[in-house]
Batch of 2 targets.
Target 1
Amino acid sequence: MKQPIQMVDLKTQYHHIENEINQSVIDCIASTSFINGPAVKEFQISLEKYLDVKHVIPCANGTDSLQIAMMALGLERGDEVICPSFTYVATAEVIGLLGLTPIMVEVDEKTFNITAEIIEKSITIKTKAIVPVHLYGQSCDMEPIMELAKKYNLFVIEDNAQAIGATYTFSDGRTAKTGTIGHIGSTSFFPSKNLGCYGDGGALMTNDDELAQKMRMIANHGQEKKYYHKVLGCNSRLDTIQAAILNIKLKHLDSYSQARNQMASYYDSVFADVKELQVPERQYNSSHVFHQYTMKVKNGKRDELQKFLSDKGIPSMIYYPLPLYKQEAFQQFVDSNFQLPITESLCDEVLSLPIHTEMELDSMEYVCSQVKSFFNN
Ligand SMILES: *Cc1c(COP(=O)(O)O)cnc(C)c1O
């Protein structure tokens, strides 16, 4: 092995596209149009085309994109928004921050995602929106979720921070990219995300003209015309240099997803006969872009395995160790005896292995042989 194994290897990825990236960053600096420069518009248009969506609104990061989406829906203090409890904090954080009530629900134990069935049990008269998170890179089952939303007149905001590029297939054979199915989609370009820039970045997607206009206005201090402010907004822009980098990286996104899939299939085949491990379930109606390769360790030895791997120079991560409703910051939203058994067992069982676009076969073989030797397999 040429170098230590990493969860994500952004350095080698950069070396493969170094000339293109450097040139576009230098061009951007030379032009001095640092704020809303031409690269931002160019990226917006390229991403609209890639996702086949009417509007992309670039913004400063993924958390902002969720917040701007909530603000655009005209929700009121005390309105309830249903989201998973097994997700990154940002999903529920912005709900609480805006004075709305996050209703944190269970996830499906196989796909790690919320389902229409789970959501419906938590709908009340105060429910106004649902935030499905396409966790680890695979779409929630969106068709039944959209039908449910229609039945109860709810908004759907897809948190697509981990699944950009994934494709969902409807029962009639029609396909759509994740993030373009709900009323609004949100995403993040944090460096380690599947489409990552070299700092912070995010975007919103929608096919709704009115929502697009509102979100664009909110992200720009609530103004459509400079110095005339219609609503309270925020300052959330995608940096021009980041957009210039994303313009290069977007062209590689599909090949990156392919590389991740090859690695995942390799892990799957090697771990198939390790009975203590459950490899990630592939849903028949969604492609998987493997933001994470997350398996379940079924014999209660997850932490022991992680320590064992770490001693062998193999990093691994636990996404996520604590359900949101057990976090101190979220106690205000739940009773002290609130419990979601599947979420709690996932927090004890999941382990994500290194997966990225530049991993060499010998590194993968090494990871696999060490995992197998832990289980004496
Ligand atoms: C990364 C992430 C976010 C937040 O994105 P930032 O750009 O870091 O603000 C939100 N939701 C999920 C599911 C994420 O993984």
Target 2
Amino acid sequence: MTAVDFIDLASDTKTRPTAAMRAAMAAADVGDERAHEDPSVNRLLARCAALLGKEAAVFLPSGTMANEIALAVHCRPGDAVLCDATSHLIGFEGGGPAALAGVMIEPIGGRRGIFDAQALRAAIRADAPYAPRQRLVVVEQTSNLGGGAVWPRATLDDVAAVAHAAGLATHMDGARLLNACVASGVAAADHARGYDSVWIDFSKGLGAPGGAVLAGSRAFCDEAFRIKLRWGGAMRQSGIIAAACEYALDHHVERLAEDHAHARRFAESVAGVPGIAIAPGDVETNLVYFDVDAVAGGAAAFVAALQARGVRMVAMGPARVRAVTHLDVDAGAIERAGALVRAFCEEKRQNTL
Ligand SMILES: *Cc1c(COP(=O)(O)O)cnc(C)c1O
């Protein structure tokens, strides 16, 4: 198996910058970003603020920093943040909410990473000195552990309305917001309308080597920039990276539809295979989650065996496996990945007969 044949479905972060993206980076106009003098960064920020329907934006090295800074701007130590129990900021940010903003998380049990206004209302309590002050509601569009599920516009609006009526701020983790836009046909600014802050990631399906843009009001962004600087996230000639992000906005957004079609195709091609439980109808974007039974070896053994055969996926629990489609995986690779999974499960079943 050559490196070229290996099919990496571990994450949409596995993309490598294309030759054209690298050329755009090499040609970028740059300046000192920390002094707001980088023309490429400034252009990207203006464009993202407009895209997200916000007054201003801040360039950041990563989405994790965008979430953590947003918590620190909206909250004070000891405050509580309400979000779905599956949220990225609970499970995958190194304890940042506690370590950096000093907040408590109050998880809400949603369905596929999505909770509704009623669940939020039930979680909101009257202010009392013995309880943490509830300050912020966070939604994740699309929901990662929810299987790439897209929050419906109406749910986003209702949740934001309940939050604001209770005096809480709202934040959208938009790591895959543009996947949601392409899948739903709803513009990014419309998804983000009720949210005081929102960010998009360039290192996921958009295929850039790094970068995230956090947007909100001018006052929010001024404070976010102060914290970015304090935490060492202010950069210098980062127009090199911003150029990759801008290239991605120009060339890699519409094509997310291909990733979604590939994800659905992969899910359909392994549905009904002995040992695998999957609902292809749940695949709305580029994330595919399925369960592997004991005959197929459970998630860890399944993932190890398939990796040896040339397709990498990730075990997300004892039975749960995640496969992610992206820019570097074409239709042929998806067919081959499906065939490898089917062949493996068929062999396992034969061996147990
Ligand atoms: C990847 C991801 C993040 C963090 O983004 P990085 O750019 O990898 O730091 C945050 N939230 C969600 C939902 C993600 O999938």
